[in-house]
Structures are given as C-alpha cells and as structure tokens.
Write a structure and sequence with these properties.
Mean pLDDT: 91
Number of strands: 16
Order of helices and strands: EHEHEHHEEEHEEEHHEEHHEHEHEEHEH
Number of domains: 2
Bound molecules: iron/sulfur cluster
Helix content: 25-40%
Distance between the termini: 41 Å
Structural class: alpha/beta
Oligomer: single chain
Largest sheet: 10 strands, mixed
Radius of gyration: 20 Å
Number of helices: 13
C-alpha cells in the first residue's frame, strides 16, 4: 500500500473554513478515530519559533491549533500543547503572543512548561513526547535558511529544550550537518500524525524574516518524510535535493519516492505553487559533496543587525551560543570573528531586525547560476 498524503485547499483562517477542511482531511486519512482513542493523552506540537503574533506568519496559526485541539477533546481525549522556542526566549511570552494562552484558557488545555526532560541517545527531549499516547505535529510551512524548508521533520526540533537547541546550532552550524542532527531528533520519537499549516506560508529568507504568501493549503499524513517530499515537489524542488528529506529517507524513516506516495484530496496538478522564493543559502545544496565542506567556510550568509528596527530586547544576546552579540550605547553589534553562523539570532529575533548578508563568493555563485 502506498503512503498517503492528504492535501486540501483552505482559503483562510476563519474557524469554519479550518474546521471543515480538517474534517475532510481526517476523513481522507480514514477517520480521526484511527489515530486518537477516547481518554488518550494527546500532545499537540505547533511551531512556536518566537514570541510573534499569528499575523506575522512565523508560527502555526492558533485557529488551526484550536480546531485540532477541539476536535480531539470532543472525543474525550486529554490534550496538552507545547513547543520549545529558542534559548533566551521566554516561553510565557511565546504562549501569550502566539495565541496559545488564549486557547489554553478557552478550552481548559494545559501548556507544557519544559520542566520534565528525558535523555535519549544523549539528546534531551521533553518528557511529554514519551508519556503521550499520540503525538500530533502541527508545523508551519516555511522556507529555512539552513534546511531549505521547514515542515514535518524539522518541527520535531522543538522537542529539544531551548538551551540545548542553541548548543546543537553551535556545534553543527553547516546546513548538511545540521540536517543530520534534525533527523537524529526526529527519529527518536516520530509523530503519529502531522498536519501542516500552509494556509499562509513563508517564502524567501525563512523561518522568521521571509515574506508571507497565501498558499491556501492544509496537508496531512502519518509520514512526515512523505509529507515533506510532497511539500518540496509542490514548490518545484526535487525532494532528494533537500538534505533533511534525503537523510530521513536514507535511514528508512519514511517515504520519499513520489511513485510510492498517494496524494489524496485536491488534484495533484492544482496545488503547485509557482515561483516560490527559496532562501539564498539553498544554493549550497547544489554543490558536489566533495567541495561542500571547503566551500561553506567562505560561501555563506552572515547575520547583520538593522539598528533602525532593533528594539534592544536582548533575545539575540541571550540566544547566541558564542556570545558574539552585544548591545552597547543603544547599538546592537555582532562580532563576526566570534560568530559561527548558526543563524539562531536570525531565527529568534522577534522584530525581524536581523537580516542575512551574502558573502562575496555566494553572490558570485548566484550570478553564475542565473
Ligand atoms: S536584533 Fe534587536 S530586536 Fe532583534 S533580538 Fe536582537 S536586540 Fe532584540
Ligand atoms: S551572532 Fe552568529 S553565532 Fe551568534 S547567534 Fe547569530 S549567527 Fe549564531
């Protein structure tokens, strides 16, 4: 039997559109009862990258989280919600600004505080992911400067508490190495069901500073690798060229072969997204492996601060693993001699005040490709 991926159009975030689309998705996948049993403990894990409002499109939209939570709760299951933002970001702020606190109050659902951790293969993960009967991943569809796209596989990185995430970014700053780490984390507890918020997606310099695009889709599957492969194909990429997908497939963690994936819902030809803008750094993935390690030393994006939009909140200072960022006399500065280009500051800045500058070598490679 082929791996199934359901794709349905969903024009907006009105509760009625979202709940009706979710019902159709559950039905295509064989009914929600297939995944959730009454009295089960269900962990919902949206992408809550930073303390930003739903309109900024950085995090999974709260209407999607709420409608999924409501549907599961109505079955008599116990629901909890949680995600770990980056190091230095207050989880209470994140829950308040992303709309999770409101859902928690309205539906009487607990928000995870990340105080219980279990180490597996030397990697700390939040305990709830092992305690729950069902792990439902709710990623936001965005581009990602290190991993090209962030979808079903990458969303599991939020199971690692913030401070350890920063450490992993620091130890493995290069795109291919980092993708392998993400697959390591993903493999420790694969989600039972993944529903991707692609109603409004982020293209360009995601996962935090890209541009929003109305893509009007909800996608779901029990196989995150198949789902990410379909996402890649929808935006014109070969899934095998996206390291996080090819690595997960190589380790037998899911399906990447499009011939072995059954797409249900919308006609396949109607869901393609033309001219989806990819991050600048994606160009590194086209280099032969032999030259990649050498090339990434100088062919890279590096972060800069826009001091006109910087609000001196200090999130980047706390989150930088090598203490390369300072705020002095009202100016936020990055010491590029210390910076390891992990891009944590770029991801976590809640005010989009950090942008990526291309190195000269990367600019030249871009020109050659045009
Ligand atoms: S760049 Fe400025 S606004 Fe952004 S996290 Fe750093 S201090 Fe805060
Ligand atoms: S300044 Fe460099 S090392 Fe520090 S968080 Fe930003 S990219 Fe990472």
């Amino acid at each position: 039997m082929k791996t199934q991926v359901a794709i349905l159009k969903c024009a907006d975030y009105s509760p009625i559109s979202v709940s009706q689309t979710l019902e159709r998705i559950f039905s295509l996948l064989g009914g929600i009862e297939k995944f959730i049993k009454p009295k089960a403990k269900v962990f919902l894990k949206p992408n809550l990258l930073s303390a930003t409002s739903p309109e900024e499109g950085v995090t999974t939209h709260p209407v999607i989280v709420k409608e999924v939570a409501k549907r599961i709760k109505d079955m008599g299951a116990k629901v909890v919600i949680g995600d770990s933002p980056g190091g230095g970001i207050s989880i209470e702020d994140v829950y308040a600004k992303t709309g999770m606190e409101k859902i928690s109050k309205e539906l009487g659902i607990a928000l995870i505080k990340f105080d219980k951790i279990r180490k597996v293969n030397n990697c700390p993960l939040i305990e709830i992911v092992f305690e729950c009967d069902c792990f439902v991943s709710l990623p936001k569809f965005k581009t990602h400067s290190l991993t090209v796209i962030t979808g079903g596989i990458k969303n599991s990185f939020g199971l690692v508490p913030g401070i350890y995430k920063t450490e992993l970014h620091w130890k493995f700053p290069r795109p291919r190495e980092f993708s392998k780490v993400l697959v390591d984390v993903f493999s420790l507890r694969k989600p039972d069901l993944i529903i991707i918020d692609g109603v409004v997606s982020m293209e360009g310099e995601g996962p935090a500073a890209g541009s929003l695009r109305n893509t009007g889709l909800l996608l779901a599957s029990t196989d995150a690798v198949a789902l990410d492969s379909i996402l890649a194909r929808i935006i014109g990429l070969n899934p095998g060229d996206v390291p996080i997908i090819s690595e997960a497939y190589r380790r037998n963690l899911g399906e990447m072969d499009l011939e072995k994936i059954e797409v249900m819902g919308e006609p396949w030809g109607s869901v393609f997204i033309e001219d989806f803008q990819l991050p600048h750094q994606t160009v590194l993935n086209i280099l032969p492996r032999g030259v990649l390690n050498f090339a990434t030393h100088f062919m890279n994006n590096y972060p800069e601060v826009n001091n006109r939009t910087c609000r001196k909140c200090g999130v980047c200072v706390k989150g930088c693993p090598v203490e390369a960022i300072t705020i002095e006399n009202g100016v936020t500065k990055i010491n590029h001699k210390l910076c390891v280009k992990c891009l944590c500051c770029f991801e976590f800045c809640p005010h989009k005040a950090i942008y990526l500058k291309k190195s000269l070598a990367l600019k030249i490679l871009d020109l050659v490709r045009r």
